[in-house]
Amino acid sequence: MKLDAIDLRILEAIQENGRITKLALAEKVGLSPTPCWLRLRKMENAGVITGYHGRVAVRRLAQVASVMMQVTLANHRQIDFDRFERAVATIPEIVACWAVGGGVDYMLKILAPDIDSYQRLVDGLLDRDLGIDRYFTYIVTKTVKEETVLPLATLLPSAG
């Protein structure tokens, strides 16, 4: 989908505040409400906007262990990747999974109540015979930066 500068301003505004009113959004991006709403709907229908979410500060509610995990599979057939990815998609504690190039096959971000819970999750993955050859665990000791707002002006310079 081709975006222009107004579309980019709309996307930036709803990233900052997904609960912004239609009128406030239109004012912020310099459009009248109806054309602004039509652009927003067009981007939703095209799948550019995938949803509106609240950000929960889970660490204000409970202790949480953040873990990064590298996974290498024993075999590299498509069926092996598919089996692993289907399993990962069903586990809520795995909040992100990336297939990567280089020395490992996947990077996972896992949130668990504690390290024991994380280890039980790993044991369950290993028991499911998903073809995991090796895994490496990295405990997150401090979050330095974790953005939820994308730098659209940098990523889509032609739209600016």
UniProtKB/TrEMBL annotation:
InterPro entries: ArsR-like_HTH, AsnC-type_HTH_dom, Dimeric_a/b-barrel, Tscrpt_reg_AsnC-like, Tscrpt_reg_AsnC/Lrp_C, Tscrpt_reg_HTH_AsnC-type_CS, WH-like_DNA-bd_sf, WH_DNA-bd_sf. GO terms for cellular component: cytosol. GO terms for molecular function: sequence-specific DNA binding. Keywords: DNA-binding, Transcription, Transcription regulation. It holds the Pfam family AsnC_trans_reg. The keyword Transcription regulation applies. This is Lrp/AsnC family transcriptional regulator.
